[in-house]
Amino acid sequence: MPATWLTRELDISVPIVGAPMGGRAGGRLAGEVTRAGGIGLIGAARYNSAEWIDGEVRLAREIGGGPLGFGLMTWSLAEDDSLLTAVLAHRPQVVVLSFGDPAPYVDRVHEAGALVLSQINTIDDLRVVEAAGVDAVVAQGHEAGGHTGRIGTLPLVQEVLESTSLPVLAAGGIASGRGLAAVLAAGAEGAFVGTALLASPETVGPEYARTRLVEAASADTVYTDVFDKARHQPWPARWGGRALRNSFTDEWHGRDADEDTLARAYTADDPDIGVVYAGEAAGLVRAERPAGEIVREMAVQAEALLGRFR
Q1: Mind listing the pLDDT tens digit for each residue in 163-198?
Q2: Where are the domains of the chain?
């Protein structure tokens, strides 16, 4: 693979970052991505405890033995930043602060010796995180699974690359070596990969989530806030979440229902109702496969495609 800012800074061989998917990306998944040559991120969601972080870090380092990172929801740190304290105690190499202004936390992360990345969804977001002093940005497109913005990956990546001197990574819809090659050829320094890994046995979460993803096509997703409302998750209104359609979204998406009504109708352990956040690359996930195998295959395919033009 060609060397990039990401591979040089972290001394890794593959410019792939395992996306920090809250509730799905724990230590086992992060460790396998790192062992395959990329860097795995643990999704530190607002409901996770310091003890959970400790256990997932031990697991990731036993498996991966290399660099490790975390992703946090910046908007939630304003009410309680103890999760960031727990994360920094483990001296990670990367901390991703997304969905809000990271300025109050950048110095703390740098003092702990980690790089600060921020996922952004607009050029206005870019200006906010530039002013905060982050080390690199991740242009996350509308195709991405989970919470994201409203601009497509390719338009956003191009605009961000032409608007900043910071290193730029890409996220959203990158689920094969073809996608990785495309963003590297455009000038990105690497890619966040999430949906491609969601059917891997190393993910956290219900078994039905893997099964439903394998069965889904790329047209089977919806960008919605009904799962946040049903679970009383106080996400800022500007960020919806892309998830697999199911009977719950078919009934409630687009309807003016209050949170209590949605909560009464929601059951997390029902495969036809529970949320499975996944991106528009769902159709590329055709089997449950080990995460390391996916990362290595993406790298080989991307290198071969990029080599056509040398």
Answers
A1: 999 999 999 999 999 999 999 999 999 999 999 999
A2: 5-200+289-307, 207-280
- For residues 120, 182, 215 and 63, what is the CA-based torsion angle, rounded to 10 degrees? -70
Distance CA 199, CA 241 (A): 18
Q: Phi and psi (nearest 5°) for 182?
A: -60, -45
Cβ atoms of 180 and 297 closer than 8 Å: no
Q: What are the start-end ranges of the H helices in 89-171?
A: 103-111, 123-132, 153-161
Query: Beta 191-193 vs 115-120: how paired, if at all?
Result: unpaired
Is pLDDT above 90 for 2? Answer: no
- The Cβ of residue 243 has, within 10 Å, a number of other Cβ atoms equal to 24
Rounded to the nearest 10 degrees, the angle between the axes of helix 123-132 and helix 153-161 is 50
Say yes or no: domain 5-200+289-307 is CATH 3.20.20.70: yes
First CA to last CA distance, the chain: 13
